[in-house]
Write a structure and sequence with these properties.
One of its GO terms (biological process) is purine nucleobase catabolic process. This protein has 446 residues and is α/β, with parallel strands linked by helices. It has 14 helices and 19 strands. Strands 1, 2, 3, 4, 5, 14, 17, 18 and 19 form a nine-stranded mixed β-sheet that branches. An eight-stranded parallel β-sheet has the order 6-7-8-9-10-11-12-13.
Length: 446
């Protein structure tokens, strides 16, 4: 592998920004200093004058749809889009077809990723009402964690047996990530509005059907159970102001047993956007009010919420272009997540240092990812160069998702990802991909 010398970068890392050089050798950050000279004529030199260098983003929640749903997406297409968006590592969810609820199916996904992924990868193992013995076989050093759907599941992945749920919480020391929405509340609300509107329920009622009450009831129960059993719990995609009060900023992240994330779409959109975007912004949990959005941002900044993720979950345009009850929930986000957060930086809502903390450092801490998420000597050289002043507009022509659409279409971002390095290799540069796949399976210091 060629050595790389990045010169004159504004390096954003561990709460500081400093100008300096980075020398990468054999896929590792070898030296970080104010000035570094090339070691030989074979070093690739990149002048980053005026640009910002951040650690590669770690996205702890994506759905890349492989196997079984590859008409929507696959690991190759979506990891490529992720790399273009500055995401160098991802953790993918188990609700594929077949579901990732046995060790055999888990390893099959690892084999696919080893051959096709552009970004570093790991997978969540899925829990069900009847696979506790399989859960006990999972190697916590080589698998990201356990995913439980406490609402909004596919197939048989809704874990709705309280006795089973408590037994899982008490029987594993895997990190447990949960989707929290109370299924009975949602069923009752759906029935009510179907009686009124039939199948064509107005999309504006989505956050009323998948309500604040449904979210809070489920997440508070999960937290209560985690406290009772001592389980390590991570609550995915918070969407309500009320839920933010369930989490603390009184202790460092490394010491927290109960953590939470917020997703890009819950920070960007509100219920006012349903009129224009329709089912394109139909997600579970639902995008809610502007007050919820403001409270989520506040909790992110004051460290009650620990991680920013995407919940990237593509569907085809044809699938989304349906009446409410038939349009699936989810949308593609990995290509545009970092640039969206940088837009908030330009608006004065968040610092570059905080973005890096929530998208790079904290996922690495929370999942105990081995030697990633930081620009540190001895760490894997996953890194992203950003030009904060190179505007571009999202159009059909530059969308890389297999589904071919984005909820950000026609949005102009002020910042652009110019270079992405994965394990020390330059895999993306100014809209061009190099024909190399340097991705590795993530491992965990547990």
């Amino acid at each position: 592998m060629n050595s790389v010398l990045i010169k004159n970068a504004n390096i954003v890392n561990e709460g500081t920004i400093f100008k300096g050089d980075i020398y990468i050798e054999n896929g590792i950050f070898k030296e970080i200093a104010s000035h570094i000279s090339a070691k030989s004529d074979h070093v690739q030199i990149i002048d980053a004058e005026g640009k910002y260098l951040i650690p590669g983003v770690i996205d702890d929640q994506v759905h890349f749809r492989e196997p079984g749903l590859t008409h929507k997406a696959n690991i190759a297409t979506e990891s490529k889009a992720a790399v273009a968006g500055g995401i160098t590592s991802f953790i993918e969810m188990p609700n594929t077809v077949p579901q990732t609820t046995t060790i055999e199916k888990l390893e099959e996904k690892f084999e696919i990723a080893a051959k096709t992924s552009y970004a570093n990868y790991s997978f969540m193992f899925g829990g069900t009402n009847d696979n506790l013995e399989e859960i006990r076989k999972v190697d916590k050093k080589n698998v990201a964690g356990l995913k439980l759907f406490l609402g909004s599941s596919t197939g048989n992945m809704l874990v709705d047996n309280p006795e089973v749920l408590e037994k899982i919480f008490a029987s594993t020391d895997l990190l447990i990530s949960v989707h929290c929405e109370d299924e009975q509340t949602i069923r009752d609300n759906t029935k009510k509005y179907k009686e009124q509107y039939g199948e064509d329920i107005p999309i504006e009622l989505h956050p009323i059907i998948r309500s604040e009450e449904a979210c809070y009831l489920s997440s508070s129960k999960a937290i209560e159970l985690a406290k009772k059993t001592g389980a390590r719990l991570h609550v995915f995609h918070l969407s309500t102001a009320k839920e933010t009060d369930l989490f603390t900023n009184k202790i460092p992240l490394k010491e927290k047993k109960i953590t939470a994330e917020v997703c890009i779409h819950h920070l960007w959109f509100s219920d006012a956007d349903y009129k224009e975007k329709g089912t394109l912004i139909k997600w579970n949990p639902a995008v809610k009010t502007s007050k919820d959005r403001e409270a989520l941002f506040e909790a992110l900044l004051d460290d009650r919420l620990d991680v920013i993720a995407t919940d990237h979950a593509p569907h085809t345009a044809e699938e989304k272009d349906n009446v409410y009850t038939k349009a699936p929930s989810g949308g593609p986000l990995v290509q545009h997540a970092l640039t969206a957060m940088l837009e908030f930086y330009h608006q004065g809502k968040i610092s570059l240092e905080k973005i890096v903390e929530k998208m790079c450092h904290n996922p690495a801490i929370l999942f105990q990812v081995h030697k990633r998420g930081y620009i540190k000597e001895g760490y894997f050289a996953d890194a992203v160069l950003v030009d904060l002043n190179d505007p571009w507009t999202v159009t059909k022509d530059n969308i890389l998702y297999k589904c071919g659409w984005s909820p950000f279409e026609e949005t102009t971002f002020k910042s652009r990802i110019t270079h992405t390095f994965v394990n020390g290799g330059l895999v993306y540069e100014n809209s061009r991909f190099y024909d190399v796949k340097l991705a590795q399976r993530l491992t965990f210091d547990r």
